[in-house]
Automatic annotation (TrEMBL):
<feature type="transmembrane region" description="Helical">
    <location>
        <begin position="24"/>
        <end position="44"/>
    </location>
</feature>
<keyword id="KW-0812">Transmembrane</keyword>
<feature type="transmembrane region" description="Helical">
    <location>
        <begin position="76"/>
        <end position="96"/>
    </location>
</feature>
<keyword id="KW-1133">Transmembrane helix</keyword>
<keyword id="KW-0472">Membrane</keyword>
<dbReference type="Pfam" id="PF03729">
    <property type="entry name" value="DUF308"/>
</dbReference>
<protein>
    <recommendedName>
        <fullName>HdeD protein</fullName>
    </recommendedName>
</protein>
<feature type="transmembrane region" description="Helical">
    <location>
        <begin position="133"/>
        <end position="157"/>
    </location>
</feature>
<feature type="transmembrane region" description="Helical">
    <location>
        <begin position="108"/>
        <end position="127"/>
    </location>
</feature>
<feature type="transmembrane region" description="Helical">
    <location>
        <begin position="51"/>
        <end position="70"/>
    </location>
</feature>
<dbReference type="GO" id="GO:0005886">
    <property type="term" value="C:plasma membrane"/>
</dbReference>
<dbReference type="InterPro" id="IPR052712">
    <property type="entry name" value="Acid_resist_chaperone_HdeD"/>
</dbReference>
<dbReference type="InterPro" id="IPR005325">
    <property type="entry name" value="DUF308_memb"/>
</dbReference>
Length: 167
């Protein structure tokens, strides 16, 4: 599984634009499916639970998911701007709090904050062209790192099991 995910991550990083579009369509589809399930659930609990909360939440999920599937380019622009804002704001917050608190290891958090602010700024400065690579890069790196971590975990477990057999 780890090897397959690692290979999929490499493929995703090799085709970041396609990965970006597929990710938006996949997310939209999952929102529609979740919305339909939540809609059904709303009617199952209509006498005992918060019917309107589930009903309105389901309709919102279905509408947003359908919009992402119908217009993935617009969804990709939206997701890119959200990611850029997230990277910038979280990096700024982490950097400021690490300097203010100076806890053990604060330098690493400061470095993370600086890199995150720079990443957000790069995405903003290259907008709208960054829509072609941002989400695909994030998804590709996630898949690749997940595959590597699964393989590393499997090797660690194998080593522990070999030690127990020889002991």
């Amino acid at each position: 599984m780890g090897l397959l995910l690692t290979l999929l991550g490499i493929v995703a990083l090799g085709a970041v634009a396609l990965t970006s579009v597929v990710s938006v369509i996949f997310s939209g589809t999952m929102l529609v499916v979740a919305g339909i399930l939540e809609f059904v659930h709303a009617f199952r609990i209509r006498k005992t639970g918060p019917f309107w909360t589930y009903l309105l939440g389901s309709l919102f999920s279905i509408v947003v998911g359908a919009m992402l599937v119908a217009r993935p380019g617009v969804g990709l622009v939206t997701v890119t701007l959200l990611l850029a804002g997230y990277f910038f704001a979280s990096g700024l917050f982490r950097g400021i709090t690490s300097i203010a608190d100076r806890y053990k290891g604060w330098g690493w958090d400061l470095a993370y904050g600086i890199v995150s602010v720079m990443l957000g700024a790069i995405i903003f400065s290259q907008f709208p062209f960054s829509t072609l690579w941002t989400l695909g890069l994030v998804v590709g790196v996630e898949i690749l790192s997940r595959g590597i971590s699964i393989m590393a975990g499997a090797l660690a477990v194998r080593g522990v099991l070999r030690q127990q057999v020889h002991a």
